[in-house]
Design goal:
The structure holds two protein chains of two kinds. Chain A is an alpha/beta fold. Chain A has helices at residues 2-17, 83-91, 110-115, 118-126, 143-148, 157-166, 175-183, 205-208, 236-246, 310-339, 346-353, 355-361, 365-371; strands at 30-40, 46-53, 73-80, 97-99, 105-108, 135-139, 190-199, 214-226, 229-234, 253-258, 261-281, 286-301, 373-382. Chain A folds into two domains: 27-57 and 66-234, no CATH class; 239-397, GMP Synthetase, Chain A, domain 3, CATH 3.30.300.210. Helices cover 33% and strands 30% of the residues of chain A. Chain A starts with a helix and ends in a 15-residue tail after the last strand. Chain B is an all-alpha fold. Chain B contains 13 helices and two strands, in the order αααααααααββαααα. Chain B has a two-stranded antiparallel ribbon. In chain B, α6 packs antiparallel against α10. Chain B is globular. The chains are: A alpha/beta, B mainly alpha. The A-B interface holds A 22-23, 125, 128, 131-133, 166, 176, 179-180, 183-184, 348, 351-353, 355 and B 111-117, 121, 170, 173-174, 176-177, 239-240, 242-243, 246, 253, 256-257, 259, 262, 265.
């Protein structure tokens, strides 16, 4: 009897707890942020822009294209002294609870980046919801534009930018990697550049009365930082040179002149690459010898000469090595002479080899980096030549 | 004897692992990395030696007084009143360590997952569940631990294996960057943790093969050490020394960084699961030590009546640190000298010395 009473009492007590559900979050009450943008306004206020997913547009897979893609997301912004303050003002315009956990990109406007990312980076690391694996992008212009434009293939521009970054055609930087580069004295941070422009065309759009071209994102190039301040940009070509020096494998094509005919070109697709940076220090001069080793496939040739011969492939390999060296040297020249910041991590390589000297040099590393001599040697190999031996459409010999 | 149960060697190893590892896993690596940077693993290896030393100390004490726990033989060695004083000190230390464990246990879900839930909710849940296990006796507690430890450790290891895509081995170089002093400083905190093996002396009398006590202590310290080294190296390989030392919960953050083929990601909830299960185990073991110790200290025949009062005391003590900053500061600065020098090395050394001077008298009784 006593046991029964106890059980009943327990049930009654426990059911009283059901009324207060702590931290309850229904998915239909959340505003899921896909991308965040931060701009600095002329009045020194920070403008926080977010792209919020419209969950209805994500049902039903690929079939629901057309009109639906217009409303897949909603971009909205608010201003404040800090990110969190701006987020509070944002909450007055967004009728749901803002959820940061699915944000794929953090876009920093150019002006904000020049003023210093350190002003705003803390929020995205300290707050528990934003993930440190989101991609960090720097917009040429305003970050808000990136979030306010659309995408034809993807549902939203934030996804488009994130997927483009993920393809690793350029240099992709996660927030945690940026934090690591910023903390280390042996490397200056870089971030991927994002541009908004009209590109491509929507066929038959004119008959249906919608625009034929959309403003869409393009992810290319690099933003260079000195500490947390943006100092300049690298274009596509220089970014690839940077990647060679940094030792990051990327997907890409290298085009070199055909061995027998300098006016025709041969394209080579990269398979893999390794870069070794060896510092040498004699107490006065710092020298870095960069050794690049790479493999590529031949994918296209313009001339009719038969390249499927060992000696031709050898010639092609040396042309490829020359081209890679030129790329790396261009990037190095621009960064070392133009910006004077060590974005390649040569300082870290130096630190690994000469840890005692590093203690002395680390606080003026950028000056040392400008004076350092860098020599680049490339060893290139060609593995496959595709489905052909003789070039296609080549006349009878 | 208040406890009649017996545990076998395997259970004892897992019990000792749960005595130390669960809370060490989460925030200790950050503190070590803050001091020793990429040499944190060397600090940890140093701390393994300290752990082995304490284990050796405690086992030789127990061999001199088989069938007696720390609380019983301290009275035997030092006499009634000083022995009681030592017992009281240890009682305080066990309760305090447990309160810290409860505080840590609550802070991860509070900080990372459920910010609106008050700490006290987690405190009460932890104490009630652990108290239930303790009330059911040592065998029940050991069986829970035997069940949960392999799963927890196995899951943790497989999660770290998923991190391979984010790893860069250069982050561990150069070795000996900050010099020996920083490495020793970094070793202080994990040594304090490893030294908690001192409480294994509460369980040695209940081993079904007491002769294996030494093996159990050494093996569990080695397992804990290897596990901690791999976790710390894993964190360093993902974040590098600068970033990983700025996290409060670096293990949790490292697991958050997992992203494989764009669908195997956001697996950190598994860490929370491991944390909760292993956390209960640690709180349970310390709780049990406190309850059994106080029963022996008071000379009671049964320890069960003490479960509820000790639970209330623990709940009160868990509020000692008003926020996580105080907790982390205490753990990083006050804990190593407080725990290591006084309770893990100092008093056991005095006890061993005294018993050696008193000669065979102790053994005969």
């Amino acid at each position: 009897m006593i046991k029964k009473t106890a059980v009943v009492l327990m049930l009654a007590v426990l059911s009283s707890l059901l009324g207060g559900c702590w931290s309850r979050k229904e998915i239909s009450e959340l505003a899921i942020v896909l991308g965040v943008g931060v701009d600095l306004l002329p009045n020194d206020q920070i403008r926080l822009s977010v792209q919020i997913a419209q969950p209805g547009a994500f049902y039903g897979g690929g079939g629901a294209r057309g009109g639906g893609m217009q409303t897949a997301s909603w971009a909205v912004s608010a201003e404040g002294k800090t990110i969190d303050e701006a987020a509070r003002y944002l909450a007055m315009r967004v009728p749901r609870e803002i959820y940061w956990g699915h944000s794929m990109i953090l876009v920093i406007g150019e002006k904000m980046a020049r003023e210093g990312i350190g002003l705003i980076g803390d929020f995205f690391n300290r707050e528990k919801e934003p993930r440190e694996t989101m991609w960090l992008l720097v917009a040429e212009g305003e970050a808000r534009d990136v979030l306010e434009c659309g995408s034809i293939l993807e549902k939203t521009s934030a996804q488009a930018a994130a997927f483009l970054t993920r393809m690793k055609t350029g240099f992709a930087v996660e927030l945690r990697e940026f934090a690591e580069m910023l903390a280390s004295k042996g490397v200056q941070p870089v971030a991927t550049r994002v541009i908004v422009k009209e590109q491509g065309a929507v066929p038959c759009a004119a008959q249906e009365g919608v625009a034929t071209a959309y403003r869409q994102v393009e992810v290319s190039g690099l933003a260079i930082f000195k500490e947390d301040r943006l100092v300049g940009w690298l274009d596509d070509y220089e970014t690839r040179g940077f990647l060679w020096l940094k030792g990051e494998t990327f997907k890409g094509i290298i085009t070199v002149p055909s061995p027998g005919d300098a006016y025709k070109a041969v394209s080579l697709r990269l398979r893999q690459a390794q870069t070794k940076v060896v510092p040498e220090y004699d107490g006065e001069r710092i020298r870095f010898s960069v050794k690049i080793r790479t493999e590529a496939d031949m994918v296209e040739q313009q001339s009719f000469e038969d390249l499927a011969k060992p000696e031709k492939i050898k010639a092609l390999e040396s042309l490829m090595a020359e081209e890679i060296r030129a790329m790396a040297t261009t990037a190095l020249e621009k960064v070392q002479r133009g910006y004077g910041v060590d974005i390649f991590g040569f300082g870290d390589a130096f630190h690994r080899k000469y840890k005692e000297d590093w203690r002395r040099l680390k606080d003026r590393w950028d000056e040392e980096f400008i004076r350092a001599e860098v020599s680049v040697t490339v060893e290139a190999h060609i593995r496959e030549i595709g489905m052909l031996t003789r070039p296609a459409f080549s006349p009878e010999e | 004897m208040p406890e009649k149960g017996k545990i076998d060697t395997k259970q004892a190893i897992m019990l000792s692992i749960c005595l130390i590892l669960p809370t060490a896993m989460l925030s200790v690596p950050a503190v070590i990395i803050r001091h020793a940077r990429q040499d944190a693993w060397i600090s940890l290896i140093l701390s393994i030696f300290i752990g082995l030393l304490v284990a050796r100390l405690i086992v030789s004490l127990s061999f001199r007084f088989p069938d007696k726990t720390l609380f019983q033989y301290s009275e035997e060695i030092l006499g009634r009143v000083p022995g009681k004083i030592v017992g009281l000190l240890y009682l305080w230390w066990v309760l305090h360590s447990n309160a810290i464990a409860i505080d840590e246990f609550a802070s991860l879900p509070c900080v990372a997952l459920m910010p609106d839930t008050p700490f006290v909710a987690f405190f009460i849940i932890a104490i009630v569940v652990a108290g239930y296990a303790v009330r059911n006796g040592l065998e029940v507690l050991s069986r829970y631990i035997e069940l949960i430890t392999p799963i927890g450790l196995g899951l943790m290891v497989s999660l770290f294996c998923l991190l391979t895509t984010k790893v860069k081995f250069e982050r561990l170089l150069p070795v000996f960057d900050k010099g020996l002093v920083s490495i020793v400083k970094g070793a202080a905190m994990p040594s304090g943790w490893m030294g908690e093996i001192v409480l294994f002396s509460m369980f040695i009398p209940y081993l079904n093969k007491p002769r294996e006590a030494c093996r159990v202590a050494v093996l569990s310290i080695l397992i804990i050490g290897i596990f901690m080294v791999s976790v710390t190296v894993g964190i360093l390989l993902v974040f590098g020394p600068d970033v990983s030392s700025s996290w409060i919960f670096p293990v949790f953050m490292a697991i958050r960084a997992i992203s494989i083929a764009n669908f195997l990601e956001r697996v950190e909830s598994v860490v929370i699961g491991i944390w909760v299960f292993m956390g209960f185990a640690k709180i349970g073991v310390l709780y049990y030590a406190a309850v059994l110790g106080s029963a022996q200290w008071l000379g009671l025949k049964d320890y069960r009546p003490l479960v509820a009062p000790v639970g209330i005391v623990l709940l009160g003590l868990a509020f000692l640190c008003p926020n996580i900053i105080d907790l982390l500061d205490f753990l990083a600065r006050a804990f190593p000298p407080y725990a290591l020098i006084v309770f893990e090395l100092g008093i056991p050394l005095i006890l061993l010395g005294a018993s050696l001077i008193r000669g065979r008298r102790g053994e005969s009784s």
